[in-house]
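Replying to the earlier thread about multi-chain prediction with a worked example.

Input:
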Amino acid sequence: MNNDTQIVKGILEGCILKILEQEETYGYKTVEMLCNVGFDVNEATVYPILTRLQNKGLLKIDKRPSPYGPTRKYYSLTNKGKKSLNDFQDTWDRIKNIVDKIMEDDKND
Amino acid sequence: MTKRDKFIILCSIAIALCLIIGIICAPSLSQSNSKFWLYSVPVMVISLLAILAVYLFKIQKGKYEKMLNSEYYQKYETIRDIVMNSQISNDSKKEIKDDILDMLISAQEAGKTADNVVNNPVDFAENIIKSYLLPERIVLLTLLDGIIFSIIFILLANGVLWLENIGENFFSTRIDVGLLVVIFFVSFIVIPTSNKPKSNRSISTYLLPLIITIVFILLLGIFTRVFSSYEFVEQLHNGSVNMIPNTIILVIYLIAIPTCIFLKAFIRKIFR
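Result:
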């Protein structure tokens, strides 16, 4: 999967918002969670998305020391982030239905 | 010590040596013993302290940076250098540095290879910068930096020229047009070029800004010789300008610097 395409970036943003809605977590753990569900991503893909979401005001951060020493940022959703996640969910459901329909039609033909 | 560290420390030693040799050999100083010690000792001490400062601020690894192995450290160093030279605010730079360190240390402790975590550190750093600032904003901030640098260079050049003729009025000091062209060239072309992310981090890429400046000065020299019959070129070669003719202009320059700094902060905060 090419993670640089706009569509994958958009989907990743939505998935990251969902992960952070369920659990307040930090950058490296987010990457692990995405990899565990099947995304082929690394820190270099996920970190700029996290900073972009943070700069858009969708994420709030809490800084705590990590077990290894440096300060670690824990991300969670702001109200704006929750609204953005709902918007993503609606858009995703709509697009998924449309794409499924087209794919089904293609199979039936 | 990485290749980049060795290069930086060697450059600082070379510059310090040039300054020390220059001050020892300066004919105006070598004739007078008291003048020689008055000027040369502070210059020598400052030159040697500058090497120490370069080591402490640019080379010495921080507490957590030491935790990274060489493979990870090289990636980290590339990302850190690009982010630090970018137009992002200082607070954000520090935040990014801590984030990257935490991320890389965590990945290293989990047994991942550095290539799996960050395949292309230059692209990674550029993506981080883009997540903070739109490219158009970066152009605007670079332009403001150019204005700040050129004002500082003009003030310094005017000050040094005035010190050479200390009896004269400060506001009658004139700067050569050629020097002014070089000041603008360095402020708006060389400094932004040297701060641009480089995918190829060989020694030649570090020397590029210096090479560009030397070539520019040579071309300017050849151009003014070949076309010396034209009045405009003659002005460029031998002309001089009074850049600070009175107190009002000086105050405008001095106000322009904090104004540009304020505008930069405003652009970063409001027009992300």
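Chain B is about 75% helix and 0% strand.

Feel free to reuse this layout for your own posts.
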